[in-house]
Protein backbone atom coordinates (compact mmCIF):
# COMPACT_ATOMS: atom_id res chain seq x y z
CA UNK A 1 0.00 0.00 0.00
CA UNK A 2 1.29 3.44 -0.87
CA UNK A 3 0.13 5.90 1.78
CA UNK A 4 -0.12 9.62 1.21
CA UNK A 5 -0.27 12.29 3.92
CA UNK A 6 -1.28 15.92 3.82
CA UNK A 7 1.25 18.67 4.52
CA UNK A 8 0.02 19.23 8.08
CA UNK A 9 0.37 15.57 9.00
CA UNK A 10 3.90 15.47 7.60
CA UNK A 11 4.81 18.60 9.54
CA UNK A 12 3.38 17.13 12.74
CA UNK A 13 5.35 13.92 12.18
CA UNK A 14 8.54 15.88 11.55
CA UNK A 15 8.19 17.94 14.71
CA UNK A 16 9.49 15.36 17.22
CA UNK A 17 12.36 14.47 14.90
CA UNK A 18 13.31 18.09 14.42
CA UNK A 19 13.33 18.52 18.20
CA UNK A 20 15.50 15.48 18.77
CA UNK A 21 18.07 15.69 15.95
CA UNK A 22 20.91 18.05 15.23
CA UNK A 23 20.36 21.14 13.11
CA UNK A 24 19.32 20.44 9.56
CA UNK A 25 19.85 16.70 10.01
CA UNK A 26 16.55 15.82 8.32
CA UNK A 27 17.15 18.38 5.63
CA UNK A 28 20.54 16.87 4.88
CA UNK A 29 18.98 13.42 4.60
CA UNK A 30 16.39 14.80 2.22
CA UNK A 31 19.05 16.64 0.25
CA UNK A 32 21.24 13.55 -0.03
CA UNK A 33 18.30 11.65 -1.53
CA UNK A 34 17.74 14.45 -4.04
CA UNK A 35 21.41 14.43 -5.00
CA UNK A 36 21.33 10.65 -5.43
CA UNK A 37 18.37 10.93 -7.76
CA UNK A 38 20.04 13.70 -9.78
CA UNK A 39 23.11 11.49 -10.24
CA UNK A 40 20.88 8.59 -11.29
CA UNK A 41 19.17 10.78 -13.87
CA UNK A 42 22.50 12.02 -15.19
CA UNK A 43 23.75 8.44 -15.53
CA UNK A 44 20.55 7.52 -17.33
CA UNK A 45 20.92 10.45 -19.71
CA UNK A 46 24.50 9.36 -20.38
CA UNK A 47 26.93 11.07 -22.71
CA UNK A 48 24.34 13.42 -24.16
CA UNK A 49 24.45 15.46 -20.99
CA UNK A 50 28.11 15.12 -20.06
CA UNK A 51 29.63 18.43 -19.08
CA UNK A 52 26.22 19.95 -18.49
CA UNK A 53 25.53 21.78 -15.29
CA UNK A 54 22.93 21.30 -12.59
CA UNK A 55 20.72 24.32 -11.92
CA UNK A 56 19.27 24.73 -8.42
CA UNK A 57 16.09 26.80 -8.29
CA UNK A 58 16.06 28.12 -4.76
CA UNK A 59 13.07 29.57 -2.90
CA UNK A 60 13.01 31.14 0.55
CA UNK A 61 11.90 28.17 2.65
CA UNK A 62 13.31 24.84 3.72
CA UNK A 63 12.50 23.44 0.29
CA UNK A 64 15.17 25.77 -1.06
CA UNK A 65 17.41 24.60 1.79
CA UNK A 66 17.03 21.02 0.58
CA UNK A 67 18.02 22.08 -2.92
CA UNK A 68 21.10 23.98 -1.67
CA UNK A 69 22.38 21.09 0.45
CA UNK A 70 21.74 18.74 -2.49
CA UNK A 71 23.75 21.09 -4.68
CA UNK A 72 26.58 20.95 -2.18
CA UNK A 73 26.72 17.16 -2.39
CA UNK A 74 26.72 17.31 -6.19
CA UNK A 75 29.43 19.95 -6.32
CA UNK A 76 31.60 17.79 -4.09
CA UNK A 77 31.12 14.98 -6.59
CA UNK A 78 32.71 17.25 -9.19
CA UNK A 79 29.60 18.50 -10.96
CA UNK A 80 29.14 22.08 -12.10
CA UNK A 81 26.32 23.38 -9.93
CA UNK A 82 24.69 26.81 -10.15
CA UNK A 83 22.16 28.03 -7.60
CA UNK A 84 19.62 30.55 -8.89
CA UNK A 85 18.39 32.42 -5.83
CA UNK A 86 14.75 33.30 -6.43
CA UNK A 87 14.40 34.88 -3.01
CA UNK A 88 16.15 37.48 -0.91
CA UNK A 89 15.90 35.20 2.13
CA UNK A 90 17.57 31.90 1.24
CA UNK A 91 18.20 29.28 3.93
CA UNK A 92 21.44 30.64 5.38
CA UNK A 93 23.20 27.51 6.64
CA UNK A 94 22.35 25.60 3.46
CA UNK A 95 23.58 28.49 1.32
CA UNK A 96 26.85 28.63 3.23
CA UNK A 97 27.28 24.88 2.87
CA UNK A 98 26.59 25.09 -0.86
CA UNK A 99 29.08 27.92 -1.35
CA UNK A 100 31.82 26.15 0.52
CA UNK A 101 31.25 23.03 -1.59
CA UNK A 102 31.79 25.07 -4.74
CA UNK A 103 28.26 25.85 -5.87
CA UNK A 104 28.11 29.05 -7.97
CA UNK A 105 25.45 31.37 -6.65
CA UNK A 106 23.46 33.79 -8.84
CA UNK A 107 20.73 36.16 -7.79
CA UNK A 108 18.01 36.15 -10.39
CA UNK A 109 15.66 38.75 -8.93
CA UNK A 110 16.17 42.42 -9.73
CA UNK A 111 16.12 45.20 -7.14
CA UNK A 112 12.35 45.38 -7.37
CA UNK A 113 12.13 41.64 -6.65
CA UNK A 114 11.12 40.68 -10.20
CA UNK A 115 12.70 37.75 -12.05
CA UNK A 116 15.49 38.67 -14.48
CA UNK A 117 14.16 36.57 -17.32
CA UNK A 118 17.23 36.78 -19.59
CA UNK A 119 19.65 35.75 -16.90
CA UNK A 120 17.36 32.93 -15.86
CA UNK A 121 17.09 31.78 -19.47
CA UNK A 122 20.89 31.65 -19.87
CA UNK A 123 21.27 29.57 -16.70
CA UNK A 124 18.39 27.33 -17.71
CA UNK A 125 19.83 26.70 -21.17
CA UNK A 126 23.19 25.59 -19.81
CA UNK A 127 21.78 23.04 -17.39
CA UNK A 128 20.90 19.45 -18.16
CA UNK A 129 19.12 19.04 -14.84
CA UNK A 130 17.00 21.57 -12.98
CA UNK A 131 16.43 20.95 -9.28
CA UNK A 132 13.17 22.58 -8.24
CA UNK A 133 13.49 23.86 -4.68
CA UNK A 134 11.20 26.87 -5.06
CA UNK A 135 8.41 25.76 -2.72
CA UNK A 136 7.44 22.55 -0.97
CA UNK A 137 4.74 21.64 1.50
CA UNK A 138 5.00 25.03 3.19
CA UNK A 139 3.42 26.86 0.25
CA UNK A 140 -0.22 27.88 0.40
CA UNK A 141 -2.40 28.33 -2.70
CA UNK A 142 -1.13 28.98 -6.21
CA UNK A 143 2.37 30.42 -6.63
CA UNK A 144 2.66 34.16 -6.03
CA UNK A 145 5.11 36.53 -7.67
CA UNK A 146 7.98 36.43 -8.13
CA UNK A 147 7.93 32.61 -8.17
CA UNK A 148 4.95 32.46 -10.53
CA UNK A 149 6.97 34.56 -13.00
CA UNK A 150 10.07 32.40 -12.48
CA UNK A 151 8.10 29.24 -13.27
CA UNK A 152 6.41 30.82 -16.30
CA UNK A 153 9.81 31.96 -17.63
CA UNK A 154 11.31 28.51 -17.12
CA UNK A 155 8.38 26.75 -18.79
CA UNK A 156 8.71 29.11 -21.79
CA UNK A 157 12.40 28.37 -21.94
CA UNK A 158 11.93 24.63 -21.72
CA UNK A 159 9.44 24.72 -24.58
CA UNK A 160 12.04 26.48 -26.76
CA UNK A 161 14.95 24.15 -25.89
CA UNK A 162 15.87 21.48 -28.45
CA UNK A 163 17.03 19.14 -25.66
CA UNK A 164 14.65 19.38 -22.71
CA UNK A 165 16.34 19.36 -19.31
CA UNK A 166 15.37 16.79 -16.70
CA UNK A 167 13.51 18.44 -13.85
CA UNK A 168 13.90 16.91 -10.39
CA UNK A 169 11.37 18.36 -7.95
CA UNK A 170 12.23 18.54 -4.27
CA UNK A 171 9.29 17.16 -2.25
CA UNK A 172 6.59 18.38 -4.68
CA UNK A 173 6.66 20.23 -7.99
CA UNK A 174 6.44 23.89 -6.98
CA UNK A 175 2.96 25.35 -7.29
CA UNK A 176 1.15 22.02 -7.14
CA UNK A 177 -1.85 21.45 -4.85
CA UNK A 178 -0.04 19.18 -2.37
CA UNK A 179 -3.14 18.19 -0.42
CA UNK A 180 -5.90 18.34 -3.01
CA UNK A 181 -4.21 17.40 -6.28
CA UNK A 182 -5.31 20.56 -8.06
CA UNK A 183 -3.21 22.81 -10.29
CA UNK A 184 -4.10 26.23 -8.89
CA UNK A 185 -1.66 28.20 -11.08
CA UNK A 186 1.73 27.81 -12.75
CA UNK A 187 3.53 24.59 -11.78
CA UNK A 188 7.03 23.54 -12.78
CA UNK A 189 6.39 20.13 -14.38
CA UNK A 190 8.81 17.49 -13.06
CA UNK A 191 10.24 14.33 -14.54
CA UNK A 192 11.07 13.00 -11.09
CA UNK A 193 9.69 14.08 -7.73
CA UNK A 194 11.77 13.15 -4.69
CA UNK A 195 9.27 13.39 -1.86
CA UNK A 196 10.17 13.37 1.82
CA UNK A 197 8.87 11.04 4.50
CA UNK A 198 5.74 9.88 2.65
CA UNK A 199 3.82 10.47 -0.56
CA UNK A 200 1.43 13.42 -0.67
CA UNK A 201 -2.14 13.18 -2.03
CA UNK A 202 -1.37 15.64 -4.83
CA UNK A 203 1.28 13.28 -6.21
CA UNK A 204 -1.33 10.53 -6.59
CA UNK A 205 -4.37 12.28 -8.08
CA UNK A 206 -5.03 14.21 -11.25
CA UNK A 207 -4.58 16.80 -12.51
CA UNK A 208 -1.53 17.42 -10.28
CA UNK A 209 -0.25 13.86 -10.56
CA UNK A 210 0.39 14.32 -14.26
CA UNK A 211 2.96 17.04 -13.45
CA UNK A 212 4.94 15.05 -10.88
CA UNK A 213 6.62 12.47 -13.12
CA UNK A 214 8.16 9.46 -11.39
CA UNK A 215 7.67 9.72 -7.63
CA UNK A 216 10.44 8.56 -5.28
CA UNK A 217 9.52 8.42 -1.58
CA UNK A 218 12.46 9.01 0.76
CA UNK A 219 12.31 7.45 4.21
CA UNK A 220 13.43 10.05 6.73
CA UNK A 221 12.09 8.13 9.71
CA UNK A 222 8.61 9.69 9.87
CA UNK A 223 6.87 6.29 9.77
CA UNK A 224 6.13 5.85 13.49
CA UNK A 225 4.87 9.44 13.74
CA UNK A 226 2.40 9.32 10.86
CA UNK A 227 -1.20 8.34 11.61
CA UNK A 228 -3.95 7.40 9.18
CA UNK A 229 -3.18 8.32 5.58
CA UNK A 230 -5.31 10.90 3.76
CA UNK A 231 -5.20 8.73 0.67
CA UNK A 232 -3.81 5.32 -0.28
CA UNK A 233 -2.99 3.40 -3.42
CA UNK A 234 -3.28 -0.37 -3.59
CA UNK A 235 -0.39 -2.38 -4.94
CA UNK A 236 -0.70 -5.76 -6.63
CA UNK A 237 0.03 -7.50 -3.32
CA UNK A 238 -2.81 -5.63 -1.58
CA UNK A 239 -5.24 -6.63 -4.31
CA UNK A 240 -4.13 -10.25 -4.12
CA UNK A 241 -4.97 -10.19 -0.41
CA UNK A 242 -8.45 -8.87 -1.18
CA UNK A 243 -9.20 -11.62 -3.71
CA UNK A 244 -10.34 -14.85 -2.09
CA UNK A 245 -9.17 -17.77 -4.20
CA UNK A 246 -11.65 -20.67 -4.28
CA UNK A 247 -11.12 -23.56 -1.88
CA UNK A 248 -11.98 -27.23 -2.40
CA UNK A 249 -15.16 -27.05 -0.33
CA UNK A 250 -16.57 -24.06 -2.24
CA UNK A 251 -19.70 -24.33 -4.32
CA UNK A 252 -21.36 -21.73 -6.49
CA UNK A 253 -23.31 -20.16 -3.64
CA UNK A 254 -20.35 -19.87 -1.27
CA UNK A 255 -18.25 -18.35 -4.09
CA UNK A 256 -20.75 -15.53 -4.51
CA UNK A 257 -23.66 -14.79 -6.81
CA UNK A 258 -23.99 -11.50 -8.67
CA UNK A 259 -27.36 -10.20 -9.83
CA UNK A 260 -27.00 -8.22 -13.04
CA UNK A 261 -29.53 -5.66 -14.23
CA UNK A 262 -27.89 -4.27 -17.36
CA UNK A 263 -28.43 -3.85 -21.09
CA UNK A 264 -31.44 -2.67 -23.09
CA UNK A 265 -32.70 -3.13 -26.60
CA UNK A 266 -30.87 0.12 -27.42
CA UNK A 267 -27.61 -0.97 -25.72
CA UNK A 268 -27.75 -4.77 -25.56
CA UNK A 269 -23.97 -5.18 -25.63
CA UNK A 270 -23.54 -3.58 -22.21
CA UNK A 271 -25.12 -6.65 -20.59
CA UNK A 272 -22.68 -8.95 -22.38
CA UNK A 273 -19.72 -6.81 -21.37
CA UNK A 274 -20.76 -6.52 -17.71
CA UNK A 275 -21.39 -10.28 -17.57
CA UNK A 276 -18.00 -10.88 -19.18
CA UNK A 277 -16.26 -8.67 -16.62
CA UNK A 278 -17.91 -10.53 -13.75
CA UNK A 279 -17.42 -14.07 -15.07
CA UNK A 280 -13.78 -13.47 -16.00
CA UNK A 281 -13.03 -12.12 -12.51
CA UNK A 282 -14.30 -15.36 -11.00
CA UNK A 283 -17.41 -15.87 -8.90
CA UNK A 284 -20.00 -18.56 -8.29
CA UNK A 285 -22.72 -17.43 -10.65
CA UNK A 286 -24.25 -14.51 -12.54
CA UNK A 287 -28.03 -14.09 -12.51
CA UNK A 288 -29.29 -11.90 -15.30
CA UNK A 289 -32.49 -9.83 -15.36
CA UNK A 290 -33.41 -8.09 -18.61
CA UNK A 291 -35.44 -8.07 -21.82
CA UNK A 292 -35.70 -11.33 -23.81
CA UNK A 293 -33.72 -10.06 -26.78
CA UNK A 294 -30.83 -9.04 -24.51
CA UNK A 295 -31.05 -12.27 -22.54
CA UNK A 296 -30.64 -14.24 -25.79
CA UNK A 297 -27.56 -12.23 -26.66
CA UNK A 298 -26.04 -12.81 -23.20
CA UNK A 299 -26.81 -16.53 -23.48
CA UNK A 300 -25.25 -16.87 -26.90
CA UNK A 301 -22.02 -15.65 -25.43
CA UNK A 302 -22.30 -17.06 -21.90
CA UNK A 303 -24.60 -20.05 -21.55
CA UNK A 304 -23.57 -20.33 -17.89
CA UNK A 305 -25.51 -17.17 -16.97
CA UNK A 306 -28.71 -17.98 -15.07
CA UNK A 307 -31.82 -16.01 -15.94
CA UNK A 308 -34.27 -14.66 -13.37
CA UNK A 309 -34.24 -13.53 -9.79
CA UNK A 310 -33.05 -15.47 -6.75
CA UNK A 311 -30.64 -15.09 -3.87
CA UNK A 312 -27.58 -12.94 -4.63
CA UNK A 313 -24.66 -11.60 -2.59
CA UNK A 314 -24.30 -8.42 -4.68
CA UNK A 315 -25.91 -6.46 -7.51
CA UNK A 316 -24.53 -4.67 -10.55
CA UNK A 317 -27.07 -2.21 -11.85
CA UNK A 318 -27.19 0.23 -14.71
CA UNK A 319 -24.79 -0.57 -17.57
CA UNK A 320 -26.59 0.11 -20.85
CA UNK A 321 -29.84 1.04 -19.17
CA UNK A 322 -31.87 3.98 -20.43
CA UNK A 323 -33.37 5.75 -17.41
CA UNK A 324 -36.11 7.11 -19.70
CA UNK A 325 -37.38 3.53 -20.19
CA UNK A 326 -39.95 3.63 -17.40
CA UNK A 327 -40.38 -0.11 -16.88
CA UNK A 328 -36.63 -0.71 -16.72
CA UNK A 329 -36.11 2.31 -14.45
CA UNK A 330 -38.72 0.88 -12.11
CA UNK A 331 -36.90 -2.46 -12.08
CA UNK A 332 -33.61 -0.79 -11.18
CA UNK A 333 -35.25 1.30 -8.43
CA UNK A 334 -37.05 -1.72 -6.92
CA UNK A 335 -33.98 -3.92 -7.03
CA UNK A 336 -31.83 -1.24 -5.46
CA UNK A 337 -34.35 -0.55 -2.72
CA UNK A 338 -34.49 -4.24 -1.85
CA UNK A 339 -30.69 -4.39 -1.83
CA UNK A 340 -30.57 -1.40 0.52
CA UNK A 341 -33.28 -2.85 2.77
CA UNK A 342 -31.52 -6.23 2.94
CA UNK A 343 -28.01 -4.79 3.30
CA UNK A 344 -26.78 -6.34 0.05
CA UNK A 345 -23.85 -4.53 -1.64
CA UNK A 346 -24.32 -3.08 -5.11
CA UNK A 347 -22.45 -1.24 -7.84
CA UNK A 348 -24.37 1.38 -9.81
CA UNK A 349 -23.12 2.89 -13.03
CA UNK A 350 -24.44 4.56 -16.18
CA UNK A 351 -28.25 4.52 -16.28
CA UNK A 352 -28.64 3.58 -12.61
CA UNK A 353 -26.81 6.67 -11.35
CA UNK A 354 -29.70 9.02 -12.02
CA UNK A 355 -32.16 6.54 -10.48
CA UNK A 356 -30.45 6.29 -7.10
CA UNK A 357 -32.29 7.65 -4.06
CA UNK A 358 -30.83 10.57 -2.18
CA UNK A 359 -29.09 8.45 0.47
CA UNK A 360 -27.45 5.11 -0.12
CA UNK A 361 -25.42 2.65 1.94
CA UNK A 362 -21.65 2.46 2.51
CA UNK A 363 -21.68 -0.86 0.66
CA UNK A 364 -23.23 0.75 -2.41
CA UNK A 365 -20.69 1.89 -4.99
CA UNK A 366 -21.54 4.67 -7.39
CA UNK A 367 -19.26 4.47 -10.44
CA UNK A 368 -19.61 7.70 -12.45
CA UNK A 369 -17.22 9.44 -14.80
CA UNK A 370 -16.68 13.18 -14.29
CA UNK A 371 -19.74 14.29 -16.24
CA UNK A 372 -21.98 11.81 -14.48
CA UNK A 373 -20.66 12.85 -11.08
CA UNK A 374 -21.40 16.49 -11.89
CA UNK A 375 -24.98 15.53 -12.82
CA UNK A 376 -25.33 13.43 -9.67
CA UNK A 377 -24.35 16.39 -7.49
CA UNK A 378 -26.37 18.86 -9.54
CA UNK A 379 -29.43 16.68 -9.02
CA UNK A 380 -28.75 17.06 -5.29
CA UNK A 381 -28.70 20.84 -5.44
CA UNK A 382 -25.03 21.58 -6.16
CA UNK A 383 -24.20 23.79 -9.10
CA UNK A 384 -21.28 22.03 -10.77
CA UNK A 385 -20.17 20.72 -14.15
CA UNK A 386 -17.76 18.27 -15.69
CA UNK A 387 -14.86 20.75 -15.86
CA UNK A 388 -15.18 21.47 -12.13
CA UNK A 389 -14.96 17.76 -11.35
CA UNK A 390 -11.99 17.21 -13.65
CA UNK A 391 -10.14 20.10 -12.01
CA UNK A 392 -10.59 18.65 -8.50
CA UNK A 393 -11.56 14.97 -8.69
CA UNK A 394 -10.38 14.24 -5.15
CA UNK A 395 -12.57 16.93 -3.58
CA UNK A 396 -15.59 15.99 -5.69
CA UNK A 397 -15.33 12.27 -5.02
CA UNK A 398 -15.16 13.02 -1.29
CA UNK A 399 -18.06 15.41 -1.50
CA UNK A 400 -20.23 12.94 -3.41
CA UNK A 401 -19.45 10.18 -0.90
CA UNK A 402 -20.41 12.44 1.99
CA UNK A 403 -23.52 13.66 0.20
CA UNK A 404 -24.86 10.20 -0.78
CA UNK A 405 -23.49 8.00 2.00
CA UNK A 406 -22.15 5.66 -0.70
CA UNK A 407 -18.67 4.76 -1.87
CA UNK A 408 -17.88 6.78 -5.00
CA UNK A 409 -15.58 5.41 -7.68
CA UNK A 410 -14.81 8.32 -9.97
CA UNK A 411 -13.53 7.05 -13.31
CA UNK A 412 -10.77 8.82 -15.20
CA UNK A 413 -7.13 8.39 -16.22
CA UNK A 414 -6.56 8.03 -12.48
CA UNK A 415 -9.49 6.49 -10.60
CA UNK A 416 -10.41 8.09 -7.29
CA UNK A 417 -12.42 6.09 -4.75
CA UNK A 418 -13.92 7.82 -1.71
CA UNK A 419 -15.87 6.19 1.11
CA UNK A 420 -18.37 8.01 3.32
CA UNK A 421 -16.23 7.15 6.37
CA UNK A 422 -13.27 9.04 4.94
CA UNK A 423 -11.18 6.31 3.27
CA UNK A 424 -9.82 7.53 -0.06
CA UNK A 425 -7.85 5.56 -2.63
CA UNK A 426 -6.50 6.39 -6.05
CA UNK A 427 -5.41 3.95 -8.75
CA UNK A 428 -3.50 4.63 -11.94
CA UNK A 429 -3.06 1.20 -13.45
CA UNK A 430 -4.61 1.61 -16.88
CA UNK A 431 -3.67 2.72 -20.32
CA UNK A 432 -5.14 5.62 -22.31
CA UNK A 433 -6.37 2.95 -24.76
CA UNK A 434 -9.01 2.07 -22.15
CA UNK A 435 -10.90 5.24 -23.05
CA UNK A 436 -13.19 3.34 -25.39
CA UNK A 437 -16.86 2.34 -25.42
CA UNK A 438 -17.88 -0.49 -23.13
CA UNK A 439 -14.87 -0.62 -20.83
CA UNK A 440 -16.97 0.95 -18.05
CA UNK A 441 -19.45 -1.94 -18.34
CA UNK A 442 -16.58 -4.39 -17.92
CA UNK A 443 -15.42 -2.50 -14.81
CA UNK A 444 -18.93 -2.70 -13.31
CA UNK A 445 -18.85 -6.47 -13.88
CA UNK A 446 -15.41 -6.86 -12.29
CA UNK A 447 -16.44 -4.84 -9.25
CA UNK A 448 -19.78 -6.65 -9.03
CA UNK A 449 -17.91 -9.95 -8.90
CA UNK A 450 -15.57 -8.71 -6.15
CA UNK A 451 -18.53 -7.46 -4.09
CA UNK A 452 -20.25 -10.83 -4.55
CA UNK A 453 -17.26 -12.96 -3.57
CA UNK A 454 -16.68 -10.78 -0.51
CA UNK A 455 -20.45 -10.50 0.05
CA UNK A 456 -20.34 -12.16 3.48
CA UNK A 457 -17.91 -9.50 4.75
CA UNK A 458 -20.10 -6.71 3.43
CA UNK A 459 -23.57 -8.00 4.27
CA UNK A 460 -25.97 -6.32 6.68
CA UNK A 461 -23.97 -3.44 8.09
CA UNK A 462 -20.62 -5.23 8.33
CA UNK A 463 -18.76 -2.41 6.56
CA UNK A 464 -20.31 0.62 8.25
CA UNK A 465 -17.86 3.22 6.95
CA UNK A 466 -17.37 1.70 3.50
CA UNK A 467 -13.64 1.09 4.00
CA UNK A 468 -13.64 -2.50 2.68
CA UNK A 469 -16.10 -1.61 -0.09
CA UNK A 470 -13.78 1.20 -1.17
CA UNK A 471 -10.77 -1.13 -1.18
CA UNK A 472 -12.67 -3.59 -3.35
CA UNK A 473 -13.62 -0.76 -5.71
CA UNK A 474 -9.96 0.27 -5.94
CA UNK A 475 -9.01 -3.38 -6.46
CA UNK A 476 -11.49 -3.58 -9.35
CA UNK A 477 -9.91 -0.49 -10.87
CA UNK A 478 -6.47 -2.11 -10.61
CA UNK A 479 -7.63 -5.38 -12.17
CA UNK A 480 -9.45 -3.50 -14.93
CA UNK A 481 -6.47 -1.23 -15.60
CA UNK A 482 -4.01 -4.09 -15.75
CA UNK A 483 -6.33 -6.11 -17.97
CA UNK A 484 -6.60 -3.12 -20.29
CA UNK A 485 -2.85 -2.68 -20.44
CA UNK A 486 -2.30 -6.40 -20.97
CA UNK A 487 -4.93 -6.65 -23.73
CA UNK A 488 -3.79 -3.45 -25.42
CA UNK A 489 -0.11 -4.40 -25.45
CA UNK A 490 0.65 -0.82 -26.47
CA UNK A 491 -2.09 -0.62 -29.11
CA UNK A 492 -5.87 -0.27 -29.36
CA UNK A 493 -8.13 -2.53 -27.36
CA UNK A 494 -11.84 -3.37 -27.31
CA UNK A 495 -13.94 -3.80 -24.18
CA UNK A 496 -14.44 -7.53 -24.65
CA UNK A 497 -10.69 -8.00 -25.01
CA UNK A 498 -10.25 -6.21 -21.69
CA UNK A 499 -12.66 -8.65 -20.04
CA UNK A 500 -10.90 -11.58 -21.68
CA UNK A 501 -7.57 -10.44 -20.23
CA UNK A 502 -8.92 -10.41 -16.65
CA UNK A 503 -8.30 -14.12 -15.80
CA UNK A 504 -4.63 -13.74 -16.67
CA UNK A 505 -4.38 -10.68 -14.45
CA UNK A 506 -6.14 -12.41 -11.54
CA UNK A 507 -3.94 -15.50 -11.94
CA UNK A 508 -0.79 -13.36 -11.92
CA UNK A 509 -1.94 -11.47 -8.82
CA UNK A 510 -2.70 -14.70 -6.94
CA UNK A 511 0.54 -16.36 -8.07
CA UNK A 512 2.59 -13.54 -6.57
CA UNK A 513 0.78 -13.72 -3.24
N1 LIG B 1 11.82 21.11 8.43
C1 LIG B 1 12.82 20.30 8.01
O1 LIG B 1 13.85 20.13 8.61
C2 LIG B 1 12.61 19.60 6.77
C3 LIG B 1 11.95 20.21 5.71
N2 LIG B 1 11.89 19.63 4.55
C4 LIG B 1 11.64 20.45 3.40
O2 LIG B 1 11.04 21.66 3.80
C5 LIG B 1 9.92 21.94 3.00
C6 LIG B 1 8.96 22.76 3.75
O3 LIG B 1 9.64 23.92 4.07
P1 LIG B 1 8.95 25.26 4.60
O4 LIG B 1 8.00 24.93 5.64
O5 LIG B 1 10.01 26.21 4.92
O6 LIG B 1 8.13 25.74 3.34
P2 LIG B 1 8.49 25.77 1.79
O7 LIG B 1 7.75 24.70 1.12
O8 LIG B 1 9.92 25.87 1.52
O9 LIG B 1 7.78 27.12 1.36
C7 LIG B 1 7.99 28.28 2.12
C8 LIG B 1 8.49 29.36 1.19
O10 LIG B 1 7.58 29.51 0.14
C9 LIG B 1 7.02 30.82 0.15
N3 LIG B 1 5.63 30.68 -0.20
C10 LIG B 1 4.61 30.17 0.51
N4 LIG B 1 3.49 30.13 -0.21
C11 LIG B 1 3.81 30.66 -1.41
C12 LIG B 1 3.07 30.90 -2.60
N5 LIG B 1 1.77 30.62 -2.69
N6 LIG B 1 3.73 31.44 -3.65
C13 LIG B 1 5.03 31.73 -3.58
N7 LIG B 1 5.78 31.54 -2.47
C14 LIG B 1 5.17 31.00 -1.42
C15 LIG B 1 7.28 31.37 1.52
O11 LIG B 1 7.41 32.74 1.40
P3 LIG B 1 6.77 33.69 2.52
O12 LIG B 1 5.34 33.30 2.62
O13 LIG B 1 7.55 33.41 3.76
O14 LIG B 1 6.99 35.04 1.95
C16 LIG B 1 8.58 30.67 1.90
O15 LIG B 1 9.67 31.36 1.33
C17 LIG B 1 9.43 20.61 2.59
O16 LIG B 1 8.64 20.66 1.43
C18 LIG B 1 10.74 19.88 2.38
O17 LIG B 1 11.24 20.17 1.09
C19 LIG B 1 12.25 18.23 4.42
O18 LIG B 1 13.43 18.20 3.79
C20 LIG B 1 12.35 17.48 5.73
C21 LIG B 1 13.15 18.23 6.66
K1 LIG C 1 9.69 22.00 -5.04
Automatic annotation (TrEMBL):
Required cofactor names: K(+); Mg(2+)
Enzyme Commission number, as recorded: 4.2.1.136, 5.1.99.6
Domain YjeF N-terminal: start-end pairs: 2-228
Recorded catalytic activity of this chain's protein: (6R)-NADPHX = (6S)-NADPHX; (6S)-NADHX + ADP = AMP + phosphate + NADH + H(+); (6S)-NADPHX + ADP = AMP + phosphate + NADPH + H(+); (6R)-NADHX = (6S)-NADHX
UniProt keyword annotations, A-Z: ATP-binding, Isomerase, Kinase, Lyase, Metal-binding, Multifunctional enzyme, NAD, NADP, Nucleotide-binding, Potassium, Transferase
Binding positions (AMP): 411-415, 440
Domain (YjeF C-terminal) ranges: 235-509
Any one GO molecular-function label of the UniProt entry: NAD(P)HX epimerase activity
Similarity field: In the C-terminal section; belongs to the NnrD/CARKD family. Belongs to the NnrE/AIBP family.
Cofactor note: Binds 1 potassium ion per subunit.
Keyword Nucleotide-binding annotated: yes
Cited Pfam families: Carb_kinase, YjeF_N
Residues that bind K(+): 63, 132, 174
Biological role: Bifunctional enzyme that catalyzes the epimerization of the S- and R-forms of NAD(P)HX and the dehydration of the S-form of NAD(P)HX at the expense of ADP, which is converted to AMP. This allows the repair of both epimers of NAD(P)HX, a damaged form of NAD(P)H that is a result of enzymatic or heat-dependent hydration.
SUPFAM superfamilies linked to this entry: Ribokinase-like, YjeF N-terminal domain-like
InterPro entries (UniProt xref): Carbohydrate_kinase_pred_CS (IPR017953), CARKD (IPR000631), Nnr (IPR030677), Ribokinase-like (IPR029056), YjeF_N_dom (IPR004443), YjeF_N_dom_sf (IPR036652)
Annotated organism of origin: Georgenia satyanarayanai
The protein's name in its UniProt record: Bifunctional NAD(P)H-hydrate repair enzyme
Amino acid sequence: MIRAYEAEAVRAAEAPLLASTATDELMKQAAFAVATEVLRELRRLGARRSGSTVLLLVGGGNNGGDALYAGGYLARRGLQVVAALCTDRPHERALAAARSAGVHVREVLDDAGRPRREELAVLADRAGVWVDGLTGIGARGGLREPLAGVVAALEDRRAAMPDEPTVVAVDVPSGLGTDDGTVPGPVLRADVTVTMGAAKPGLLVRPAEALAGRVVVVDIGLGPHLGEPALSRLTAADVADLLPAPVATDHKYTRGVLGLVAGSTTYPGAAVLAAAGALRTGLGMVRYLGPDAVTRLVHERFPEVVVGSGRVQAWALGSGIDPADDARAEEVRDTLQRALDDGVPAVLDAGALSLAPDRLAPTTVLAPHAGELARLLSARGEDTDRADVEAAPLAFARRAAARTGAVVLLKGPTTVVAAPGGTVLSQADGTPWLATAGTGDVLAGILGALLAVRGEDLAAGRDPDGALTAELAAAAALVHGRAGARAAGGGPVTALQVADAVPGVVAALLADR
